[in-house]
Design brief:
The longest helix is centred in the middle third of the chain and has 14 residues. It is built from eleven helices and 15 strands. The relative contact order is 0.15. With about 325 residues, the protein is of the alpha/beta class. Helix 2 links the parallel strand 2 and strand 3. The chain has two domains: about 160 residues, Rossmann fold (3-Layer(aba) Sandwich); about 150 residues, Dihydrodipicolinate Reductase, domain 2, CATH 3.30.360.
Length: about 325
């Protein structure tokens, strides 16, 4: 039996809990969130189930973790480790493994080396494992291309592109990329941190490099708005001509003065959904998914699918390379 607590019940946190509850042997024993709209409500109602679960959403994480003593905490509250460190540390103190969707925790040694060292020490002291994981960072732009290099004799460059039609994404994602803003407002909010666009280019690059055994000299990130050529209506969002219809972001990892790893994310209204990995070397390889990967449900799935591997891993701070392989357990072939 895997007893889990859901820490953060936004769209992703809810999906993770819902996926976990479909698995045999998983029991939800606590739910933590600070939103006044759901605190005090039965988690069954919040999850949209046709039953009450007898567990209320609570805002006091210390009380929940102390009382229920979970095996694992599914953590989904923020993108930056310095903002959520105390939440993860508290879970560690109560001897729970932590699997978090915090993007910068996927490879925390780059932005937060001191916090990474503290988490590793705390986790080892309490005999638990901690990892940041999701679809991106965690799979599409780092683990997957790393695995695709296996049949190569040598590699000279790796390019990964992910393209998303933002009109099909949830409202919070559309807001995150500044949909509908003017160019000036976009740049202002991006600098202030009011919008984040994609978080994790450097983490994915350095995670990939660590998996394939390359030490890069430098990494860079850029984000630019894509502008509408005419007025566009997306639900209740009106995008004026020359206003932001999405973003294009890039991350580059340099080896011997040359760009060795190049990641590109396009998230904009009217774009095609697809992912593509190009490996230049011997031989040259191209992998492409023409449908795109539904990011939300895929993140929930990869988090839940990693539980057993994390539980079996040695205590400490982990990255996805420490728990391979992750796979979906096949219970039935009937869909």
């Amino acid at each position: 039996m895997v007893r889990f607590v859901s820490y953060g019940l936004g769209p992703i946190g809810l999906l993770i809990a819902s996926v976990a509850l479909t698995r045999h042997g998983y029991e939800l024993v606590g739910a933590i969130d600070i939103s006044p709209s759901i605190v005090g409500r039965d988690v069954g109602q919040v999850l949209g189930l046709n039953k009450l679960m007898g567990i209320k959403v609570e805002s006091n994480a210390e009380t929940v973790l102390k009382n229920v003593k979970p095996d694992v905490v599914f953590h989904a509250t923020g993108s930056y480790l310095d903002k959520v460190y105390s939440q993860i540390s508290l879970s560690i103190v109560h001897r729970a493994d932590v699997i978090s969707t915090c993007e910068t925790l996927a490879y925390p040694y780059y932005r937060y080396p001191e916090l990474a060292a503290k988490l590793d020490k705390e986790a080892k002291e309490h005999g638990v494992s901690v990892m940041g994981l999701g679809i991106n960072p965690g799979f599409l732009m780092d683990l997957l291309p790393s695995l695709l290099t296996a049949p190569c004799v040598k590699i000279s460059k790796i390019e990964v592109t992910r393209s998303l039609d933002a009109s099909n994404r949830r409202k919070s994602f559309q807001k995150k990329i500044g949909l509908g803003l003017s160019q000036e407002e976009f740049k202002k909010r991006l600098l202030s941190g009011d919008i984040t666009c994609h978080v994790g280019f450097s983490e994915s690059i350095l995670l990939m490099a660590s998996i394939i055994g390359v030490k890069l000299q430098d990494v860079t990130e850029t984000t630019e708005p894509l502008l509408a050529k005419k007025e566009i209506s997306i639900g209740d969002v009106q995008i004026k001509e020359s206003h932001v219809r999405g973003i294009v972001g890039q991350g580059v990892g340099y080896l011997d003065g040359l760009d060795f790893i190049r990641l590109k994310l396009i998230a904009a209204v009217g774009e095609q959904d697809y992912e593509e990995v190009k490996i230049y070397g011997e031989p040259n390889l191209t992998w492409r998914c023409n449908t795109g990967t539904p990011g939300d449900i895929a993140t929930a799935a990869i988090v839940v699918n990693s539980v057993q591997r994390v539980a079996e891993a040695k205590p400490g701070l982990l990255t996805v390379k420490d728990i391979l392989p992750i796979a979906c357990p096949v219970v039935s072939v009937k869909l």
